[in-house]
Amino acid sequence: MTIKRYFFLALLSLICVQCESEKPPLETSDSIRLNQIGYYPGSVKEFILVDQTAGEFRVIDGQGEVVFNGELQDRGTWDTSGERVMSGDFTDLKTPGTYTIEIDSVGTSYPFSIEKKVFEKALNASIKSYYFQRASMPIEETFGGMYKRATGHPDTACAYHPSSGRKKGQLSSPGGWYDAGDYGKYIVNAALSTGQMLHLLEQYPEAIPDASLNIPESGNEQSDLWDELLYELNWIRTMQDRDGGVYHKLTAKNFSGFIMPEAYDLERFIIGKGTAATLGYAAVMAQAGRLYTSADPVWSAEAIISAEKAWKWALRNRNVPFSNPEDVSTGQYDDTVFSDDFYWAAAELYLATGERKYLKYLEKNPQPYQHQLTNSWKFFVRNNAFHSLLENRDKLPKKMADPLVSDHLKLADSLLVKIDKNPYHVALDRYEWGSNSDVLNQAMILCVAHRLSGDEKYLAGAERINDYIFGKNATGYCFLTGFGSKPVMFPHHRPSGADGIADPVPGFVIGGPNHDRQDQHEVEYNSEHPAKAYMDVEPSFASNEVCINWNAPAVFVLGYLEQNRKNQ
Ligand code: 9MR
Questions:
Q1: 341 is catalytic
Q2: DSSP letter assigned to residue 302
């Protein structure tokens, strides 16, 4: 090497060292909030920057190359989270890959992907979570891996609680899913959740093919989602009394401690019998019976006959509410308004049987098309009816079908207006118990609007909302257990707490921020703001529990997005 060349190289390396020392590598910043799983190439791609001011951002690929430059927009202060919010958009970046976002003086985001089928794993896990919730059977290692466990709660000899209307005897009512972090089984919520997922199967029977979930029924040439739903439906059927009425729930008198299912130590009872459970039964059995006709005509016919029997019971018992008897303190799913439950049952029975009496009932008893703000699981019962009727609008008189379509699109448009106005591009007005499911149910409404109209704006709206669940939110957590760079680690879920495994059972959408903080005596929240009223601690049943009706809209939305975006 010549001396000249030597000096040239030495100078060059000095300059480089200086460059590097001027630009220390950026650290990961929790102030950048985005979908930690990722985006489809064809999706709207947004992220949020909080409590920092910056002008520009860049997207960096896996090789460290800048592949996109963009500008941040000031979105003002969001009172609900107390944050100063800026947003960035990189929708035009469509090349598949793994990326991060960098912002000078702030840091770098968590990594995320742009890829086709970007939610496939999250979708499958969100369905598989129901397998992990199965009562009365073991979770075998072949299917559950390290989350294997022994059989819990056989439920083959449950005594009747006097509230059931029976004074003696026992009911065999095995199977079904545990409702949530507790080990109860509740008909109202079982019907709602199963009904929501049946919408996905109705729209896309092949969305979850056989053998995609690795569950015991995989390989039986039937959709694995059907198999999972049947596990619940067959339990639901055991809860119908001979007169057609349906028991409200099967639980112990109180919640158990944080023990594994196989360590159960409390006697379980058949509790309550009422109008809401009976109508939920009628609706979901008619819906499943209709959709299952060709696969299993016998099962289907029996389900529909039992649904009609339930309907008749409800007509004779129009106003039998449930509330916990004095000696019972498990979940209530209490309701006093049954018009929406009647509406859903009438809708499904009409579609299943074609009988005019059910159509007449719907015509005479229309339901308002609006979004109720509190205890919205009650509202979603009504939505199940709308979604089935809309999907089958060719079977409705035009004067009924047309307003249903236009009302649905109006509701979806009102959500889009909120999404545009909100600094985080979400549409929630209130953060209640299970707020994440409210977010997902709004996304579901937008998916249905997309299905009705084919208009891309609704699909984009559903995605923008869905990003919230995976990290574009005021807590920075990815709210699906087992996913994301800032994952939920301590859900209020008994098996996750008791199994001695550090990672929680995967695939659960946790409840999310809850301004009402019903658990504040046990949990110290670190923010006063509604959108931040969330703590990743096991005792937080009001913000960090899992529940079957919170996962159900995630299954629908992720399934819908996969079907509509997988090739884009
Ligand atoms: O999701 C339910 C929420 O809307 C109610 O405010 C809350 C209190 O009644 O109950 C929630 O449902 C719980 C059920 O009662 C028992 N299993 C766990 C459910 C989720 O926390």
A1: no
A2: H
pLDDT of residue 37: 98
Conformation bin of residue 51: beta by default, left when phi > 0, alpha when psi is -120 to 50: left
Q: What is each CA distance from 233 to 280, 289, 329, 345, in whole angstroms?
A: 12, 10, 25, 16
Q: How many CB atoms lie within 10 A of CB 165?
A: 16
Report how far residue 122's alpha carbon sits from residue 480's, in angstroms, rounded to the nearest whole number: 8
Residue to mutate (ligand 1; options 328, 329, 332, 519; most atoms within 8 A of CB): 332
**In the chain, pLDDT over 90 holds for what percent of residues?**
92
Q: Are the CB atoms for 94 and 16 separated by under 8 Å?
A: no
The per-residue pLDDT for 373 is 60
Strands 185-186 and 158-160: unpaired
| Active-site pick, 83, 182, 241, 438 | 182
Q: List the domain boundaries for the chain.
A: 26-114, 120-565
Q: How many helices (H) and strands (E) does the chain have?
A: 15, 15
Would you call 536 a catalytic residue per the annotation?
A: yes
pLDDT of residue 1: 43
Superfamily of domain 26-114: Immunoglobulins (2.60.40.10)
CATH topology of domain 120-565: Glycosyltransferase (1.50.10)
Distance 333 CA to ligand 1 centre (A): 7
Best residue among 182, 329, 437, 440 to mutate for probing ligand 1's pocket (most ligand atoms within 8 Å of CB) is: 182
Banded pLDDT at 17 (limits 50, 70, 90): very low
Q: Yes or no: say if 77 and 83 are a contact pair by the CB < 8 Å rule.
A: yes
Q: How many CB atoms lie within 10 A of CB 77?
A: 13
Give the pTM: 0.95
CA of 200 to the centre of ligand 1 (A): 24
Question: Exactly one of 202, 296, 455, 536 is catalytic; which is it?
Answer: 536
182 is catalytic: yes
Q: Which among 161, 387, 450, 492 is annotated as catalytic?
A: 492
Give the pocket of ligand 1 (CB within 6 Å): 179-180, 182, 184, 331-333, 375, 377, 433-434, 541, 545, 547
- Under 8 Å between Cβ of 149 and 259: no
- Does the pLDDT at position 22 exceed 80? no
